[in-house]
Design goal:
alpha/beta, Rossmann fold, Heat Shock Protein 90, 3 domains, 5-stranded mixed beta sheet, 19% strand, elongated
Length: 372
């Protein structure tokens, strides 16, 4: 019946016999029962344990039930716990004070077992429904934020490469005869770089969108991480040569991970491409690999500009617009790192980074080791 198979109930009553009677009835329903014999002890207990419901007596020494309820509702840790007054005081004034203090219901002593069980079941179920609605609302809010981020990237960052291509294309068409072969070659190189940037961005957008909607199929298999690193380096070598950056594959041969090949190739492409982007001319990017405790660890280390400590958490969040240009003005959206994190986590791994401004960055990710 309940999402929580053993809902936790706290009974606060200064008379032990009253607690025993109520507890005996509720234990038969598989409820997990705790108790406190004073308001102060009850509040302290509720702060430590996440209860699903509190049954609260009104007539208690030192602090009556109304005051206990008020304090529970003023406390961030306990304010969402429904409180039912279990008491002999059921006059109109007591009812008013009880609801004003934050109670959700009254059960009059001496109570009937069937009534106690029914009311407790109802309010616990209501609490679970409210929690589910709250969770759903939060998921909708995050989905809207993600949608806004996606639309922002499409509207702004994806327009830039097309604007460059349109501008240069028109320039060449309008003044074709005025350009030398060297000029045209320069423009063609710009076309290529811009087209590649736009394609990579679009590829990331499509993959990220698929991962959010659950439409991306994950097919895990035995992957040779040395081979995948070498394949990625070959793909990105021209990007590195343009900045005189050396790429080193130091991943050992026969290092095997168990993961989805397309996702891991996307991760390697993004991490190595970013390392090139944020490394000055003449620098280097090294890719290492090792096995620890049945986990394959890959790290991509560069000698680039590094990341400020305050900015590191931002690069993993879709709801924060954080993007910086590369050392040669290369543009990006920051979506690549977010995509990498999601893909690694979908393959039961972890992505992290260590960095110092001016000294470079090292991105680490882990994957399960493939069994022979």
């Amino acid at each position: 019946m309940f999402q929580n198979l053993n809902p936790k109930i706290l009974i606060i009553d200064d008379i032990a016999e009253n607690i025993k009677v109520a507890a005996n009835v509720l234990k038969k329903q598989s409820f997990n029962i705790s108790y406190a014999q004073s308001g102060k002890a009850g509040i302290a207990r509720a702060e430590k344990v996440r209860f699903d419901l509190i049954l609260l007596d009104i007539m208690m020494p030192e602090m009556d039930g109304f005051e206990v309820c008020r304090r529970l509702k003023q406390n961030e840790k306990t304010k969402e716990i429904p409180v039912i007054f279990l008491t002999a005081k059921a006059d109109e004034e007591s009812l008013r004070k009880g609801f004003d203090s934050g109670g959700v219901d009254f059960i009059t002593k001496p109570f009937k077992a069937t009534e106690l069980i029914a009311r407790v079941n109802t309010h616990i179920q209501l609490k679970f429904v409210q929690e589910q609605l709250s969770k759903t609302n939060e998921e909708i809010r995050l989905a809207n934020e993600n949608k806004d981020k996606l639309l922002s990237i499409i509207a702004h960052d994806l327009r830039n490469p097309f604007s460059v291509l349109i501008t240069f294309s028109k320039l060449i068409m309008d003044s074709y005869e005025e350009f030398s072969k060297e000029d045209i070659l320069t423009y063609m190189k710009s076309f290529y770089d811009t087209s590649k940037q736009g394609f990579n961005l679009l590829d990331n957008l499509l993959k990220w969108s698929k991962s959010q909607t659950g439409k991306m199929e994950i097919i895990r298999e035995k992957l040779d991480m040395n081979d995948l690193t070498e394949e990625t380096i070959t793909l990105l070598n021209s990007q590195a040569l343009n900045k005189n950056i050396k790429l080193y594959n130091k991943v050992p041969k026969n290092l095997y991970a168990f993961a989805d090949i397309n996702m891991i190739l996307t991760v390697l492409r993004n991490l190595i491409s970013n390392a090139i982007k944020f490394t000055d001319k003449g620098g280097k990017v090294e890719i290492f690999g090792e096995i620890k405790k049945k986990q394959v660890f890959i790290k991509v280390k560069d000698t680039g500009v590094g990341i400020a400590a305050d900015d590191i958490p931002k690069i993993f969040r879709i709801d924060i617009k954080h993007s910086t240009s590369g050392t040669e003005g290369e543009r990006g959206t920051g979506l690549g790192i977010i995509l990498c994190k999601e893909f690694i986590e979908k393959n039961n791994g972890i992505l992290s980074v260590e960095s110092q401004p001016g000294k470079g960055s090292t991105f680490f990710f882990s994957l399960p080791e493939a069994h022979s």
